[in-house]
Amino acid sequence: MPLRKIVTLPDPILRRKAHPVTRFDTDLQSLVDDMVETMRVAPGVGLAAPQVGIPSRVIVVEYPEDEEQEDAPKKLFIVVNPEIKELSAETELGIEGCLSIPGLNGEVERALAVMVKGQTRHGQAFKIKAKGWLARIFQHEVDHINGVVFTDRATKVWRPEPEEPVLDNV
Ligand code: ZN
User: Fold this and answer.
1) Cα of 11 to ligand 1 centre, how many Å?
2) Where are the beta strands (DSSP E) in 55-155?
């Protein structure tokens, strides 16, 4: 499982709508495995295929399902052709960073809860309900496969001071 190189702005692939996945073949399986490893090594909590230079609608996320639970275990989500089907009307502001935009943080308003529909790496349909930071990560990653980055949505963007805490990167 080789690591893939994370592409950064201004690479145009980050600005394009990625293609739906139609073949659940060995190329897709290698891409998924490489994305999981690349996300863990980065380290990050989410990664979308365009961030490793592949214009396909694939995202991986690794984060606790319920962050309010103490010592909540991380859970790995692999979603092919993800679509956000429901967004809560309630929103919250949060500070985001991005592996493809190193050295910038931004304050972004996102829905507090989402329902994501997609397919497993083998093509089976499933859905996930997420809230809080996990919901934010899904929104950030689905934006990536639509050519949108967090700075497009941010109400404020800044270069963090060295003493500012390191964010979960997505
Ligand atoms: Zn990102």
Assistant:
1) 13
2) 58-64, 74-87, 91-96, 105-111, 113-119, 125-131
Q: What is the CATH number of the domain that holds 73?
A: 3.90.45.10
**Residue at 170 is within a domain:** no
How many angstroms is it from 149 CA to the middle of ligand 1? 6
φ/ψ of residue 145, rounded to 5: -75, -5
Q: How many residues does the chain have?
A: 170
146 lies in a domain?
Answer: yes
Is the model's pTM score more than 0.85? yes
| pLDDT per position as a tens digit, 31-68 | 999 999 999 999 999 999 999 999 999 999 999 988 88
Instruction: Return the half-sphere exposure (C-beta side, CA atoms, 13 A cut-off) of residue 89.
Output: 0
**Residues carrying an active site annotation:** 141
Q: Are strands 74-87 and 91-96 parallel, antiparallel or unpaired?
A: unpaired
When pLDDT is averaged across residues 5-15 and rounded to a whole number, the result is 97
Q: Range of 54's domain?
A: 12-158
d(CA 29, CA 81): 14
Residue 165 lies in a domain: no
